[in-house]
Amino acid sequence: MSENKVCKTTITSDGVTLEFTNGVTLTCSTSALPPETIAQAALFGIRRKVTNSFADAKGNVDDAVAWAKETWEQLLAGQWTAPREVGPSTKAASDLVEAVMAITGKDRTVVEAKLDELSKEGRAALRKNPSVNAKLLEIRAERAKAKLPEEDINVADLF
Predict the structure, then answer these.
(1) Chain-centre distance for alpha carbon 137
(2) Strand pairing category for 15-20 and 25-29
(3) What are residue 2's DSSP bridge partners?
């Protein structure tokens, strides 16, 4: 069930029920739809589900591809919702992977596998390692620099 300011939605075995705050209820049953419309709705749902999976990739195409493939594999296995992972799949985790890859020269698959073996505390300790911490700061600085406007603002001219 999900809610927003004007309605509460509930997914049922045959569709979706929308309960509006003004008391109106709309039941959208898939059995009432033509097969072509059901197919289009399914394609829309697949696209939304897969693209939502990499919404936090923040421009990192490698993360986006990995998360999209992971989501597709889950759907193929009949899993609409993914089981919670022990390790984080966030920008911070992606930055840690990038930092360790840069320091060790190992490829993404090797680094991710090794980091997956670490506990939360182990990853936190790795982030505190001076070399890793410096590389993480460098990665974040590069990302911030890439977001700057192309025109360089002369700070001295501002004062």
Answers:
(1) 22
(2) antiparallel
(3) 9
